[in-house]
Design goal:
mainly alpha; 276 residues; 13 helices; single chain
Length: 276
């Protein structure tokens, strides 16, 4: 058989490696298999096929279009498949060049395959949103933005720029009054907002079909965690791990149910759930 010239690519760059790559022909003799496995490209081909096969075995959608679906795997079979899959990824990760990056790309492709199968099994539902609903949400946000700009322009006085967008916004919130005096009034009158009321706009977005990612607005997420530390301290870690609005409200509902169980248990009278 002809072996591949595994020469390095300029500085280990992927472009150089791709330029030197060519399709090697391998012989099917079992006597040569252990020698051909020493070739990194051949080893990757084999391990990648193993991963595809393992996923097809463990997928919940396995044979969803077949007239007679195959029987599900037993527990010990599932454990064996997971062990084989983990071992194959370890071998791929240790195979140069860029083994770790190759494994990440393979995992993404396999996940895309699962998503595609789920979409097919769900009847190929449309990805397009209702145009009327999207237009209504956009109009609502535009009106709110215009009202905010109008209030800002009616506040009077020149806008003070402090070199930072957030600091400038906070300094000019007073509407023409002395900024420090306005901060003192806000500290005594406004107080700390209620946790549920603070999340109400986010809940409205979620109900409208926009499952926003919390990490896109780090200031908002920081406020959520600060409020949670005052009234939801037991669930603070669960909130910290959330990345989307749906995850956050699921964690809130779970924490409320846990509190109801703790508060409702005991002797007869039904306790009051405590959050601190």
């Amino acid at each position: 058989g002809s072996g591949g010239d595994g020469g390095g690519g300029g500085g280990g760059e992927m472009a150089a490696a791709a330029a030197e790559f060519y399709a090697t022909k391998y012989l099917t003799s079992s006597n040569l298999l252990h020698l051909q496995l020493a070739d990194a490209t051949f080893r990757r081909h084999i391990l990648l096929q193993f991963l595809i096969f393992y996923q097809s075995l463990s997928s919940p959608l396995r044979g969803f279009k077949a007239k007679a679906p195959p029987p599900p795997l037993l527990d010990h079979q599932k454990t064996a498949v997971k062990n084989f899959e983990r071992r194959a990824k370890q071998l791929l990760s240790s195979t140069p060049p860029h083994g770790d990056r190759f494994v990440v790309v393979v995992e993404q492709l396999l996940q895309h395959e699962i998503t595609w199968l789920e979409w097919k099994a769900d009847g190929c539902s449309s990805f397009e949103r209702d145009r009327a609903r999207v237009t209504a949400i956009a109009d609502s946000r535009r009106r709110k933005r215009e009202e905010k700009e109008k209030k800002k322009s009616e506040g009077g006085g020149g806008r003070v720029l402090l070199g930072n967008a957030e600091l400038s916004r906070l300094w000019n919130l007073d509407g023409g009054q002395a900024p420090l005096e306005a901060c003192k009034e806000a500290a005594t009158s406004a107080g700390v907002p209620d946790f549920d009321e603070f999340l109400a706009p986010l809940k409205e977005e979620l109900d409208d079909g926009f499952d926003s990612k919390l990490y896109t607005d780090k200031v908002f997420f920081w406020k959520v965690l600060r409020l949670a530390s005052r009234s939801r301290i037991r669930a603070l870690q669960a909130f910290t791990d959330c990345t989307t609005a749906s995850d956050l409200f699921a964690a809130i509902e779970k924490d409320k149910q846990r509190a109801d169980v703790v508060g409702g248990g005991g002797g007869g009278g039904g306790g009051v759930a405590t959050w601190r």
